[in-house]
């Protein structure tokens, strides 16, 4: 993987300056800059996480599916539930699970509670890969090593507030 090109300035800060010139100081400049920054950080993190997992022939999306299955009580879950928990389209779930099955990290088995459904079940090899990959992600602090623990907690709370307001989940 080639190193990303480093720009000589922050394009999001510059966009905020231009935004203010174009739309005025009363416009939601900070909201625009925050939203754009979140999107850019997501791109950066995904690239870092995928790079850390590449030696294991995994992407972060497939790693997330493996972790989800490893966290489940029986190490298995209906495909529909995998998609719901990972918040992805059913077609994406099918693709992810098929790739993991091809790697022998997951098995696809008939759901005994639903004659038409399929369960995704993590294999012992899948559990081993979760352990190894998790250590690799810990080594890079999940791409967020520039933050301390208090900053991590604060960032989580801020993003949690956005997700709550957007109806991402029900807060009990």
SSE blueprint and pairings:
Layout: H1 11-23, H2 29-53, H3 60-71, E1 76-78, H4 79-86, H5 90-102, E2 106-110, E3 118-122, H6 124-139, H7 149-165
Antiparallel strand pairs: 1-3, 2-3
Helix pairs in contact: 1-2, 3-5, 3-6, 4-5
Quick structural overview:
By secondary structure, the protein is mainly alpha-helical.
How would you sum up the global shape?
Answer: elongated
CATH superfamily of the largest domain: Winged helix-like DNA-binding domain superfamily/Winged helix DNA-binding domain
CATH architecture of the largest domain: Orthogonal Bundle
Structural class based on helices, strands and sheet pairing = mainly alpha
The largest pleated sheet is described as: 3 strands, antiparallel
CATH topology grouping of the largest domain:
Arc Repressor Mutant, subunit A
**Unreliable parts:** none
What is the strand content? 5-15%
Widest sheet: strand ordering: 1-3-2
CATH class of the largest domain: Mainly Alpha
How many structural domains does the protein architecture include?
A: 2
Would you write up a description of this structure?
By secondary structure, the chain is mainly alpha-helical. The protein folds into two domains: about 10-50; about 55-140, Arc Repressor Mutant, subunit A (Orthogonal Bundle). It contains seven helices and three strands. The chain has helices at about 10-25, 30-55, 60-70, 80-85, 90-100, 125-140, 150-165; strands spanning about 75-80, 105-110, 120. It has a three-stranded antiparallel β-sheet. Helix 1 runs antiparallel to helix 2 and helix 4 (about 80-85) crosses helix 5 (about 90-100). The longest helix is centred in the N-terminal third of the chain and has 25 residues, at about 30-55.
């Amino acid at each position: 993987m080639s190193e990303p090109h480093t720009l000589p300035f922050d394009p999001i800060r510059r966009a905020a300056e231009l935004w203010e010139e174009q739309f005025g100081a009363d416009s939601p400049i900070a909201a625009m800059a925050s939203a754009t920054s979140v999107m850019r950080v997501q791109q950066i993190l995904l690239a870092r996480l995928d790079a850390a997992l590449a030696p294991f022939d995994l992407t972060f999306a497939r790693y997330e599916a493996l972790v989800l299955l490893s966290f489940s009580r029986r190490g298995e879950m209906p495909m529909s539930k995998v998609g719901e928990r990972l918040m992805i389209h059913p077609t994406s779930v099918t693709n992810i699970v098929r790739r993991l099955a091809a790697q022998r990290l997951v098995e696809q088995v008939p759901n005994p509670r639903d004659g038409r459904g399929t369960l995704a079940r993590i294999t012992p090899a899948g559990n081993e890969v979760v352990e190894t990959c998790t250590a690799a992600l810990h080594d890079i602090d999940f791409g967020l090593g520039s933050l301390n623990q208090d900053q991590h907690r604060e960032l989580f709370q801020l993003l949690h507030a956005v997700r709550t307001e957007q109806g991402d989940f029900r807060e009990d």
